[in-house]
Amino acid sequence: MRISVIGCGYVGLVTGTCLAEAGHQVICTDNDPERIAALKAGVVPIYEPHLDAIFAANLRSQKLSFTSNAAEAVRLGEVIFICVGTPPLENGEADLSAIDNVARLIATEACESKLVVEKSTVPAQTGQQLKRVLGVYRRNGGIEFHVASNPEFLREGTAVEDFLHPDRIVFGVEDETSENQLRKIYAPIMERRFRCPVHLSSCPATKPPALVVTTINSSELIKHASNSFLAMKISYANMIADLCEKVGGDIKEVTHAMGLDPRIGPRFLDAGLGFGGFCLPKDIQAFIRLAECSGADFSMLKEAERVNKRRIDLFLEKVRNALWVIKEKRVGILGLAFKANTDDIRFAPSLEVLRRLIAEGAHLRAYDQEAMDKTSALFPQVQFFREPYELVRDADALLILTEWPEFRDLDWARIHGMMCRPLVIDGRNMLEPRAMMQHGFEYFSFGQPEKSQPAQFVPAQLPALSTASAGA
Ligand code: UDX
């Protein structure tokens, strides 16, 4: 199938490259000529595991190509995937101006009928507007535009795997022709007919992806509803963590037991500094705005957003309580990216923590295996170190802000001896309080037992209580 991808940001690059890997002829375009020049030269401007390999292979085989001539890209594709950004406006609504621009471009440049697919995250009813714009700006009366929605559920850090091994693929369509075209495009992924860059020997024998075919409106809602539910689940865990601190529980044990119930599930219950990144914060805002404009009460999501925003206040309260005075303190920062396995710092909780500690006069030293370049551009006053042990020397405190697995494997006994004061405030509950206590650290985190509490009796596996006595 000849496919055009408009927008070579994160979603467009992963989508275009993976569809080429699945055997399609893909041409990508973007309104940033420098980005296109870099891509043509084989430079992938984002850090995403496994992407480089399949990008290079498909560029070489010419299955994947790039052009800054958007009109050419429009004309070449039978199916056009719109992957432009929909960043938040001041009021939280999604900025759809790039979608509108692309729609007018397609309408004026297309010489044959096209299937136009929304891949960008958009609020419900965008497809209807897209169809209208394509109609009113259409230059060639003899052609037709079909519109469809095909939301992505890619997570940064695992996007290639998420695209090639999705849990589900969603088509929002208005007719059978569009549905069949999309089925043809995704057939190699549904039937695992691709060389998997993630599982070099053989892919795990998991169930094939579920295919959901629905209306465009429902498909658009599925994306926002899914991301908002994930955000709400994280805020719920954080709310429980706060209560654990008040009544003396252990959030990890609570969420572990909750997650054993398949109706709840173990994932996205990690308490800490809250959710960041370019998706969850803006999608929950856009969903709330859509509900407000439509007269639906989404106060539950507003609360989830408020709980999330307060994580930073609560974290800085822990820092202030431990340090008393923040001014002039040497504070080490482990982790800057909004989550592990990415260099992305957009809407990362770490940025607000840095901003506020600098404002209070702390001297910051930071380490992150991927996100330092992007952060140093924003915070020239922070000292960046190529490896974590360099920044702990004589530090008054160490703050963990991103859940990079490498922090668990650090030599904490060694760090204990290097710090001026062995104080760790773990914003991602990465470490084991008991182990940190045994190393002699003052250790604070979210919803876990803290050093200040007397050693608690840790019950051995209690025999199952009979319901009667439990009720008594
Ligand atoms: C998210 C969705 O997961 C993905 O399906 C969608 O397509 C795009 O948005 P992503 O933004 O890459 O993906 O990040 P995700 O892995 O969802 O993490 C989001 C944030 O939540 C991160 O800041 C992470 O640290 C935080 N998080 C995640 C928690 O605080 N606790 C958790 O249990 C899980």
Brief write-up:
This protein has 472 residues and is of the alpha/beta class. It has helices spanning 10-21, 33-40, 51-60, 70-76, 97-109, 126-137, 159-164, 176-190, 216-247, 251-259, 280-294, 299-323, 349-359, 372-378, 388-392, 412-418, 433-438, 467-471; strands at residues 2-6, 25-29, 64-67, 79-82, 114-118, 145-149, 168-172, 210-214, 330-334, 363-367, 383-384, 397-400, 423-426, 442-444. The protein has a 6-stranded parallel sheet with strand order 3-2-1-4-5-6, with helices on both faces. The chain has a 6-stranded parallel sheet with strand order 11-10-9-12-13-14.
Architecture overview:
The protein has 472 residues and is an alpha/beta fold. Helix content is 43%, strand content 13%. The protein contains 18 helices and 14 strands. The protein has helices at residues 10-21, 33-40, 51-60, 70-76, 97-109, 126-137, 159-164, 176-190, 216-247, 251-259, 280-294, 299-323, 349-359, 372-378, 388-392, 412-418, 433-438, 467-471, and strands spanning 2-6, 25-29, 64-67, 79-82, 114-118, 145-149, 168-172, 210-214, 330-334, 363-367, 383-384, 397-400, 423-426, 442-444. The strands form three sheets. Strands 3-2-1-4-5-6 form a six-stranded parallel β-sheet, with helices on both faces. It has a six-stranded parallel β-sheet with strand order 11-10-9-12-13-14. A two-stranded parallel ribbon has the order 7-8. The radius of gyration is 25 Å and the shape is globular. The N and C termini lie far apart (67 Å). Residues 452-472 have low confidence and may be disordered.
